[in-house]
Write a structure and sequence with these properties.
The complex is a heterodimer of chains A (141) and B (542). Chain A has 141 residues and is of the alpha/beta class. Chain A has helices at 20-25, 64-74, 92-97, 111-118, 135-140, and strands spanning 5-6, 18-19, 31-34, 52-57, 80-85, 102-105. Chain B starts with 5 loop residues before the first helix and ends with a helix. Classes of the chains: A alpha/beta (141), B alpha+beta (542).
């Protein structure tokens, strides 16, 4: 947990996340882990009981987790969304935009580099899951 | 032409700063080459056979004279004094140093240019019709839609690690001059029966090792849902495109394996959901962008007369100019295919000259074609002789648009780390052999790729050449009957391949079959389609 970068004030969930399949069979856990091949939408009926969604990136080049994160945020999930695995500092800004608010990378980030990465974009072009107003909205109000 | 506002400029500047920091961390060894690779690719930087190659985006093919001058300056300052215009309407520099790239990107940002997402597994530069805004056959200028999508696709946080690269093309006429149906998403701006403007979506086309022509998945997406529909297409692809095999990872394979109907169903479902997510810019944004593409102030009352007393000039006019919507104007094509030259290459001096001519004769606007030439879209007929005279003096006056000498060729094994065979020498030899018969052969599109990835569009050539590696020796397959135009078709391989000398002979033999068999007015492609491949096979292998 020492290497957890977290942008939330609530207490982290203290028990391990279960797989999506296990969660769907017996959903009394508060934490679930999504693998790249899982359908994030299967969790939508159960979002009320969830406090932590981990999205695993076995390889940083596999971008399915970005869609999974946005889909759950779009469905109204407000709990912790944690990127775990092969998560690199140069993905931080995009991941934040997709709704991740916690990061547990295999290799810890350098604090300064993480800070710089999160400040990459002065504005953004798209609506995403981070609530930032896209440039077109700034242009047209 | 589109002009950056404070926001666009800030985004490009932020990108330069981000990449400068990434290069620094790479040079300091703080990130590995494997980690750095996607970052440099999404800034246009490839590691090729001999050096880094930088691919600079030319959005929807349009450049101003200041931008062309800047491209020439980069060729001089950071490369060996030339650049290479590509089949994706971009420009590449072949001899770049890693440590120079942040400065190059900063130079580009000063003229509102960038190399963002010109490679890597992301949404690439949006291409368009190189006669946009000039041709009489278009419904509307397609470039505002392309610019809208440029902004949407730039740094899209969800789509930066797609299964594979993703290419979008936007056109707005029945005639297809941009190979629209051979893109991951091809968009044709159309009018429906009620007279409203919208977009027809063709998804899942492509060349490469599995060439496919994109099916139309939605004939009419309203303009105020264009971005949302693209996002739905991309999300389904990002979630379900294959990632187990890079050769099956393009969206064409997903569409093919699911079937167009099932893919469409999934897109429509995602689209219905995304419409609730406030991701579509208002039409006012499209209108804002469109004002930048308002037609230039064409003069009226111009003469249609052209003094054809110089036969060389007359030939150039006949081959290299195309009709314009405004009376007294044409679009003039500057061929980057001198006989025996390297297709698509231009020296810094030539680029500076093209920039000057762009300013002087074409309302400060030129275009890069996917056939690796440059268009001056709005030239007065009265100025053509002066323009041609300047081009001739600089070695840019080849009169060969869509003729046998107007060959598309990828960089091939002379530069590219993926290639199996050289493309450039084959193009040069075919050009030298057959250019003397250019007029007799008429329209004939020859396209050469040095490997199966098909950057030279060999599938879409009336005559295509594919370089392969045959037990360590370069070998060339011949394809016939492809087309990237409105009558899109994929070429067929004639049979066993040839060595370098043999492929030049084979192309010549194919043209002889055509000349012997053609009827009045038939192009090579028409004759091929009428008589089929067998007479050609007999001549080649009989």
């Amino acid at each position: 947990m020492a290497d957890l970068l977290r942008f939330r004030d609530d207490e982290p969930v203290d028990h391990p996340a279960v797989t999506v399949d296990a969660y769907l069979e017996q959903s009394n856990a508060a934490a679930v882990r999504i693998e790249p091949g899982d359908d994030a939408r299967a969790l939508i009926p159960h979002l009320d009981g969830l406090r932590l969604v981990e999205i695993n990136f076995p390889a940083f080049t596999d971008g399915r987790g970005y869609s999974a994160a946005r889909i759950l945020r779009e469905a109204g999930y407000t709990g912790e969304m944690r990127a775990v695995g092969d998560v690199l500092v140069d993905q931080l800004s995009a991941m934040r935009r997709c709704g991740f608010d916690a990061f547990e990378p295999d290799k810890p980030f350098d604090e300064e580099e993480a800070k710089a990465a999160l400040a990459t974009w002065p504005q953004v072009y798209q609506t995403a899951a981070d609530g930032r107003a896209p440039i077109w909205k700034l242009r047209h109000g | 032409m589109y002009k950056y506002d404070q926001y666009d400029q800030a985004m490009v500047d932020a990108r330069v700063a981000e990449f400068r920091d990434q290069v620094r961390r790479r040079i300091e060894g703080r990130i590995t080459e494997d980690q750095f690779k996607p970052l440099r690719l999404q800034n246009g930087l490839y590691l090729q056979l001999h050096a880094y190659m930088l691919r600079v985006a030319v959005p929807y093919s349009t450049l101003s004279s200041a931008q062309m001058h800047a491209l020439a300056d980069i060729a001089d300052k950071y490369d060996r004094g030339y650049g290479h215009f590509t089949t994706r309407q971009n420009i590449q520099y072949n001899w770049i140093k890693l440590e120079d790239t942040p400065d190059i990107l900063a130079d580009l940002a000063k003229v509102e240019m960038h190399a963002i997402q010109t490679s890597g597994n992301c949404i690439r530069n949006i291409s368009s019709d190189h006669y946009a805004g000039a041709t009489a056959d278009e419904l509307i200028d397609p470039r505002p839609y392309a610019e809208l999508l440029r902004q949407w696709s730039s740094f899209h946080p969800e789509f930066l690690a797609l299964p594979r690269k993703f290419k979008i093309c936007v056109i707005a006429s029945e005639a297809d001059r941009a190979a629209m149906k051979l893109h991951d998403i091809g968009i044709r701006i159309v009018k429906n029966d009620s007279g409203e403007i919208g977009a027809a979506f063709y998804v899942g086309g492509g060349m490469g090792r599995t060439p496919m022509i994109a099916p139309c998945i939605n004939p009419f997406v309203p303009l105020d849902q264009l971005v949302t529909y693209c996002e739905a297409c991309l999300r389904v692809y990002n979630r379900y495109g294959r990632r187990d095999n890079k050769y099956k990872a393009r969206i064409k394979i997903l569409v093919h394996e699911l079937g167009a109907a099932e893919y469409t169903r999934q897109v429509e479902e995602e689209f219905a959901h995304l419409q609730t997510q406030d991701i579509e810019p208002p039409l006012a944004e499209l209108e804002r962008i469109s004002t930048y593409f308002a037609p230039p102030a064409f003069e009226t009352g111009l003469s249609e007369e052209i003094d054809r007393s110089d036969p060389d000039f007359a030939l150039w006019v006949d081959t290299n100019t195309v009709p314009h919507k405004a009376p007294g104007y044409v679009s003039a094509v500057i061929s980057l295919k001198p006989v025996g030259g390297i297709p698509g290459d231009a020296s810094a001096e030539q680029m500076h000259l093209i920039a000057d001519l762009t300013k002087q004769y074409s309302f400060d606007e030129c275009r890069v074609t996917h056939t690796q030439n440059i268009v001056l879209p709005h030239v007065k007929k009265a100025d053509l002789h002066a323009l041609w005279t300047a081009l001739e003096a600089a070695g840019l006056g080849a009169a060969n648009l869509d003729r046998v000498g107007d060959i598309i060729a990828c960089p091939g094994l002379d530069y590219c780390s993926l290639a199996n065979a050289r493309s450039i020498p084959v193009a040069q030899k075919i050009s030298e052999r057959l250019s003397p018969r250019s007029a007799e052969l008429g329209e004939l599109k020859v396209k050469i790729s040095g490997c199966i990835n098909a950057c030279g569009h060999h599938h879409a050539g009336h005559i295509g050449v594919l370089g392969v590696d045959k037990k360590g020796v370069e070998n060339y397959q011949l394809l016939l009957g492809g087309s990237e135009a409105d009558d899109t078709s994929l070429g067929k391989i004639t049979g066993p391949g040839f060595d370098e000398a043999g492929i030049v002979d084979a192309v010549e033999k194919a043209t002889e079959v055509y000349l012997a068999q053609r009827t009045d007015g038939e192009r090579f492609l028409d004759t091929y389609r009428r008589i089929g491949i067998n007479p050609f096979k007999e001549a080649l292998y009989g």
